[in-house]
Specification:
alpha/beta, 14 helices, 55% helix, 13% strand, globular
């Protein structure tokens, strides 16, 4: 007898459901989010359990890692692609778990990629850096607005980074205004220290990686963008074709067309937002240093909007990055742009 299981994970509990090869339910239980309790419930089915499905939610790391470390074959379900039958009158957490188990039993489960544990921690650290950069930018803009309100002059972001403590007294005679400006300046300095520490740590880990070294040959891709692309991509062989990779990077149109008319739109956010950001950033830098990239960008810009032209160049760079990582070759702009 073969068994198929699924876990519907919530913030404080997990609903486990197991079915046999004929689809009959053999286990229905809800346990707290402790890996030992969940593994204890699965133990009687270990030998005949063909696999167990976990939905890709915000908190899947701990349960997937615990099951894989204990020897179970885990499948990560893609929630954006899993569709329930819309005619159902009533569903609950156990029905969701049994539905995932049935999809696994029938061999039609849409699966996500389980990123390996150790490099996943490095990738998430780099994501934390991006969050801190955005916070620093928010404080920079806040201080620029404060300065303009009380002096009437614009202050460049580079000048904000070099702003001295004694200059706060010149900003305004009011102590409350000075304190507000000091809060922005001190926070920016603190965030800058954390960002630099994270960058040094990740760079030390990634410098000898061949995938990272080859990515830096792409025009517009430096240390940070190269790190982001390499870590967010992971194993490049999981993308069978370059089109799959471009779609994962959110570089492919999501429109539904019929007779050249727009009939609808798909999920534009289906893909990796960090890769999308990285390639758009690279597309903003590439025309400055590559004549072929600049010519391609200007040709697109003459026909459409700036944002569309930038996205078109980002799409080209994403396709180039795929072959650079897959074949471990240096970037060649002539092959890309002709």
């Amino acid at each position: 007898m073969k068994y198929y299981g699924a876990a519907d994970v919530h913030s404080n509990n997990t609903c486990l459901g197991i079915i046999d090869e004929s689809g009959q339910k053999v286990l229905k239980t809800k346990v707290s989010n402790y890996s030992k309790l969940i593994l204890h419930e699965l133990e009687p089915f270990r030998e005949k359990l063909q696999g167990i499905v976990v939905e890709s939610t915000f908190n899947w790391y701990w349960i997937v890692d615990a099951m894989m470390d204990d020897g179970y074959k885990v499948h990560l379900a893609n929630p954006a692609a899993v569709k329930q039958y819309e005619g159902l009158k009533h569903t609950n957490d156990f029905d969701d778990a049994y539905h995932l188990a049935n999809l696994l039993r029938l061999g039609i489960l849409p699966e996500g990629y389980i990123y390996p544990k150790e490099p996943r921690t490095v990738r998430d650290l780099l994501r934390k850096r991006l969050m801190l950069v955005r916070h620093r930018t928010a404080h920079t803009l806040s201080f620029q607005s404060l300065y303009c309100r009380h002096t009437g002059f614009q202050l460049r972001s580079s000048d904000v980074q070099r702003f001295k403590d004694y200059q706060l007294e010149e900003l305004s005679p009011f102590e409350h205004v000075q304190l507000a400006g000091q809060a922005n300046i001190l926070t920016m300095r603190f965030l800058a220290t954390l960002i630099n520490d994270i960058e040094k740590k990740v760079l030390r880990l990634m410098t000898p990686q061949p995938q990272f070294i080859k990515l830096k040959t792409i025009t517009g891709v430096g240390d940070i963008l190269g790190l982001t692309i390499a870590l967010e991509t992971g194993d490049i062989t999981r993308f069978p074709k370059v089109g799959n990779y471009a779609s994962y990077c959110r570089m492919v149109s999501s429109q539904h067309l019929s007779n050249n008319k727009k009939k609808g739109q798909g999920n534009r956010k289906n893909g990796n937002k960090y890769l999308c950001w990285a390639f758009i950033e690279a597309a903003n830098f590439a025309p400055r240093y590559c004549a072929l990239a600049k010519r391609f960008y200007q040709r697109k810009l003459a026909k459409t909007k700036k944002v569309v032209a930038t996205k078109a160049l980002a799409h080209k760079l994403a396709r180039a990055a795929y072959f650079v990582m897959r074949d471990q070759v240096d970037y060649d702009p002539i092959k890309l742009f002709g």
